[in-house]
Structures are given as C-alpha cells and as structure tokens.
Design brief:
It is a single chain. This protein has one domain (3-48, 56-93): GMP Synthetase, Chain A, domain 3 (2-Layer Sandwich). Helix content is 40%, strand content 24%. A three-stranded mixed sheet has the order 1-2-3. The protein has helices at 3-20, 38-41, 61-71, 73-77, and strands spanning 24-29, 45-52, 81-89. The protein contains four helices and three strands; from the N terminus they run αβαβααβ.
Length: 95
C-alpha cells in the first residue's frame, strides 16, 4: 500500500468518525484488486467500509449508504476515492 493510499484511508476514517460516531469502523484498501481499472489509473482508490453506527437505526440501506457517501463527499469529488463497498449496520442488528 502506498503512502497516498494510507493517507486516504486515514482521512476516510477521520471523516466517518466525525460524522457518524461509529461503535465500530473498519476500512480496507482494495485498490490492489483494481490495478489497471480506469478509476485506479486516475489515482482514485477502492475501499471497503464496514461500519456500525447508531445513526443507522431505523434507516433503509440506501439511506445508510447516503450518510456514508455524504461524509466522504469531498474525497470522492476530488477523485481521491473512486469506489466504496459499504457494509453499514445498526448496533441493534448485531448478533
């Protein structure tokens, strides 16, 4: 993983922490799986976000994803993030 990807991952983490106050947050850099992909060539990164937040209680999946995308909007607009795979769960849904 490059320093740029590590920095992006840290910024993603900070933005999601600030906006969604997660009980649990894991960010995985999947960029290496997309080598040669147009988004990777432009410098954008691919990440998987696994997040548990009380902000998701009572929300449908599309609204949960919207909250995540809204939190990292600037990074997406600046092409720092090309793609997110999101697993957004409310604490009450955990086993």
């Amino acid at each position: 993983m490059t320093t740029a990807h590590t920095d992006r991952q840290a910024r993603l983490h900070a933005l999601l922490e600030a906006e969604l106050a997660p009980a649990s947050l894991e960010i995985i850099d999947d960029s290496h799986l997309h080598a040669g992909h147009a988004g990777a060539a432009s410098g954008g990164s691919h990440f998987t976000v696994k997040i548990v937040s009380s902000r998701f209680e009572g929300l449908k999946l599309v609204m949960r994803h919207r909250l995540v995308y809204d939190a990292v909007h600037d990074m997406i607009n600046k092409a720092e993030v090309h793609a997110l795979a999101i697993n957004a769960v409310a604490p009450s849904e955990l086993p």
